[in-house]
Amino acid sequence: MTTPSEVVAEYVDWLAAFLPDDYYENYRRYRWDIPLRRDHQRAAFEAGWIQPTWPREHGGRSLGLRDAMEIRIEGALRSAPKLPNIQGPGVAAPGIRQFGTPAQIERLLVPLLRGDEWWALGMSEPEAGSDFAGLRTRADRDADVFRVNGHKIWTTQAHESRWCTLYARTDPDAPKHRGISCLILDLHSPGVRIEPIRMSSISDETFCEVFLDDVEIPVENLLGPVNGGWNVALSSLHHERQMIWIMNWVEIKRGLDAVRKAGADDQGLCAELGSLLADAEALRATGYRALGNELAGRNSPEADIMKLLGSVTLQRVWELAAAAEGPGSAGDPDLLFERQDALAATIYGGTSEVQRNIIAERLLGLPKG
Ligand SMILES: Cc1cc2nc3c(=O)[nH]c(=O)nc-3n(C[C@H](O)[C@H](O)[C@H](O)COP(=O)(O)OP(=O)(O)OC[C@H]3O[C@@H](n4cnc5c(N)ncnc54)[C@H](O)[C@@H]3O)c2cc1C
């Protein structure tokens, strides 16, 4: 183990000073405490911990990747309050920073990073989830606006958000993935109807459907080039993907502790526990290998492997915790939440089946089945 650099130690002290004295004692309550999580985001922005590699005015400290990763690890190990609108800083912000015009960056980035304006991701549609390139929402140029018609689904927190990165087809004649653009949609625009989806699972991240009926989006709200939406989507998601393993790894460790506490004395459970411990370490090692590649400026193909390994291992861990707890586990709301949350991780950002296809075809070079 390396010793944490001074800046990492500074972050740890900052977090300890921010958290209420009874935070760990009452963590079950605090994890759902949105005002606390909002305050934490605002304070973290001011202190430069939101995106540590970015400059101060964009919520960072211009740190190197290694320090940034250690800060994420320390925050996760200490159960730092989860950002209440995680797709804003995690996905929308990197896209705006990379592809935004100076006017877009000036207007949008700071309110997003401070958590004053929430963001939704308008990618999935009823007939286009895994097949993102098959989306049908249309954006037709009409003088100085795009006129948008279509239907998005699974749009997390759209009903509480001000903005949405909306992916729509701007060239119906181009090959599927070359005819998509990313537009910044003001969700308060006329013609936008948002309907939250009733959920049976425990979550504070409500899914929505977003119906778009002749919505006008000014041309200056285009994010990135016309018909360049595919790249905007991949680059925006990539940023979070390189770090998402940390959250999964820490959650896996928590799950393993729960299994040990429940007492996995059955031989089958012990074998599964051993296999999961090995997978957790493989995930951590792969995370560091990805960092090594990035630092050396090499292509880093690990993100897809970490997404698959992290989410599948997390799901196995919480299923093992339920098995170790026995029939009573069905009535344990905390455990139920963990199991549902782990299942969700195998779907969003690319399902496990699709990740396996990508790894097989693009990383291993296997022929299409
Ligand atoms: C918690 C959560 C939050 C989300 N938030 C958002 C959001 O904010 N914005 C947004 O746009 N979307 C969001 N999504 C949606 C998510 O991106 C989609 O659910 C995901 O892309 C899968 O699409 P789908 O649900 O349409 O399933 P489908 O693509 O219809 O897949 C159905 C099943 O078929 C399998 N399958 C599909 N294609 C293949 C293939 N080629 N080979 C093998 N198997 C295949 C899948 O693995 C899956 O098991 C969220 C999802 C979850 C769970």
What layout of secondary structure does this protein have?
Layout: H1 6-18, H2 27-30, H3 34-47, H4 65-77, H5 87-99, H6 102-114, E1 119-122, E2 138-142, E3 145-152, E4 163-169, E5 180-186, E6 192-196, E7 208-218, E8 222-223, H7 229-262, H8 267-295, H9 302-325, H10 333-345, H11 352-363
Parallel strand pairs: 1-4
Antiparallel strand pairs: 2-3, 3-7, 4-5, 5-8, 6-7
Helix pairs in contact: 1-4, 4-7, 5-6, 5-7, 7-8, 7-9, 8-9, 9-10, 9-11
What does this structure look like?
Helix 7 runs antiparallel to helix 8 (267-295). The N and C termini lie far apart (43 Å). It is globular, with a radius of gyration of 21 Å. The protein is built from eleven helices and eight strands. It has helices spanning 6-18, 27-30, 34-47, 65-77, 87-99, 102-114, 229-262, 267-295, 302-325, 333-345, 352-363, and strands at residues 119-122, 138-142, 145-152, 163-169, 180-186, 192-196, 208-218, 222-223. By secondary structure, it is an alpha+beta fold. Bound molecules: flavin-adenine dinucleotide. Flavin-adenine dinucleotide (FAD) binds next to strand 1 and helix 11.
